[in-house]
Automatic annotation (TrEMBL):
<dbReference type="InterPro" id="IPR000182">
    <property type="entry name" value="GNAT_dom"/>
</dbReference>
<dbReference type="Pfam" id="PF00696">
    <property type="entry name" value="AA_kinase"/>
</dbReference>
<feature type="domain" description="N-acetyltransferase">
    <location>
        <begin position="274"/>
        <end position="421"/>
    </location>
</feature>
<dbReference type="InterPro" id="IPR010167">
    <property type="entry name" value="NH2A_AcTrfase"/>
</dbReference>
<dbReference type="InterPro" id="IPR001048">
    <property type="entry name" value="Asp/Glu/Uridylate_kinase"/>
</dbReference>
<comment type="pathway">
    <text>Amino-acid biosynthesis; L-arginine biosynthesis; N(2)-acetyl-L-ornithine from L-glutamate: step 1/4.</text>
</comment>
<dbReference type="GO" id="GO:0140085">
    <property type="term" value="F:L-amino-acid N-acetyltransferase activity"/>
</dbReference>
<dbReference type="InterPro" id="IPR036393">
    <property type="entry name" value="AceGlu_kinase-like_sf"/>
</dbReference>
<dbReference type="Pfam" id="PF00583">
    <property type="entry name" value="Acetyltransf_1"/>
</dbReference>
<protein>
    <recommendedName>
        <fullName>amino-acid N-acetyltransferase</fullName>
        <ecNumber>2.3.1.1</ecNumber>
    </recommendedName>
</protein>
<comment type="similarity">
    <text>Belongs to the acetyltransferase family. ArgA subfamily.</text>
</comment>
<dbReference type="InterPro" id="IPR016181">
    <property type="entry name" value="Acyl_CoA_acyltransferase"/>
</dbReference>
Amino acid sequence: MEAAGRIRLTIEAKLSPGPPMLNLRRHGVIGRWHGLVDNVASGNFLGAKRRGVVNGIDYGFTGEVKKVDVSRIRERLDSDSIVVVSNMGYSSSGEVLNCNTYEVATACALAMEADKLVCIVDGQIFDEHGRVIHFMSIEEADLLIRKRAKQSDIAASYVKVVDEEGINSLHKGDYKSSLNARAHVNGYAASFQNGLGFNNGNGIYSGEQGFAIGGEERLSRSNGYLSELAAAAYVCHGGVQRVHIIDGTVDGSLLLELFTRDGAGTMIARDVYEGTRIATAEDLSGIRKIIRPLEDSGVLVRRTDTELLEALNSFYVVERDGSIIACAALFPFPEEKSGEVAAIAVSEECRGRGQGDKLLDYVEKVALSLGLEKLFLLTTRTADWFVRRGFSECSIESIPEQRRKRINLSRGSKYYIKQLQPKHAGVTANNFIIR
């Protein structure tokens, strides 16, 4: 209680100061910011019960999370407060119980139906070549956990819980199929029933306990944060869209992770490319509807229906509720290990919501899978958008000769190129999006 209380109070103190007075004077808005900022809330939001005696071992005041007071937490969030929840749980008999931090985090994320969970550790997750992994789909995370399960008791327990058949059904040889595949886990989803705790038999740990990380495995770090990766996959199965595992020893790592394109840590995402797929003939009218206004304004080159049909195998679309809301094309030039990005368009009602970024990320991932090393494009009106996403202006000589012969020079297009790197190869700090 002493340790948890001290840490909680320190966090509240760090979150309590208002903006610097010099900035306030500069902008003339001292008023309500003059004193302490009342924007932090904490309390007995966590219900718990004793773990009891398991396999002959009395766990004493170790608690298991039973309930998260979602309504009271939401009230404080709705009033623009930051809610601080410690690992101390309160039992119905008036006891204070020591709950596992990861169990609290996963229970809160599932009960609150959080958009994302951020896990701050003291290192990073590396691939077999010693490079930082910056992005993983839930399917890729599951495969890696299975591959390394012998290194971690927690990962091995996770594998027992999650149905292997759905994960192993991914088409490893067909990238386009595997990119669209969604691992169907029969009868399994991470579940926290508020008021009852984690489902019997579905907990990652023994008995009824939820996802708990600790003991020698956490102290030794011999598994390279594999247990945290399993926790991330666990909550993603339960509906949390993204989990970020970041290195807290790096200055500014949280800002770098959230506000740079590739991030500074590892992001595990559920359905990050949901609805994104290769186009079919049935999508022609939807694609035409999106690109026609841009063709009329001269932003895109005008294509006939025949030309669109011929190029349809190179188009990718984002579908939502049966409607096409975005499209893009990738035309590979394998000999030059390059590809042309063309016809990126988002429906008017969906602009400004990151659909263009998602589609560009998807196209880049497909290009990498095809062995391409760079992407190029021709544009007249959208150069700024592509520059912010890592493209730089180039000469016409940088365009493959086969494509140069077909360029309509009368349009006066500018040429841009981007060198592709695997997602784990580094951080592109000048490309800002919300991760």
